[in-house]
Amino acid sequence: MEASPNAFTIKRLCAAYGVGRTFVFAEIKAGRLETRKAGARKTLIRKVDADRWLDSLPKGKPAPALAGGEA
Asked: What is the pLDDT of residues 9-56, one digit of tens each?
């Protein structure tokens, strides 16, 4: 059984949360997603920060019901 990570690299965050690198870097640049640096090159995002970021995203709106009850 694999343990849940305490932090993600950019690549792992994208895979875990189903988002693209460009979107993640835009969120980091905007200050909405907090990062940590491990050395000069490695960027890490703590799981608690990733979850906080996810919770801060706007909620989706429910799809409108089709007229006549058709599915």
From this structure: 999 999 999 999 999 999 999 999 999 999 999 999 999 999 999 999
The total number of structural domains in the chain stands at 1
> pTM of the predicted model, to two decimals?
0.78
* 67: in domain: no
**Complete DSSP assignment for the chain:** -PPPPSEEEHHHHHHHHT--HHHHHHHHHTTSS--EEETTTEEEEEHHHHHHHHHHSPPPPPPPPPGGG--
The verdict on residue 42 lying in a domain is yes
Domain region containing 34: 7-56
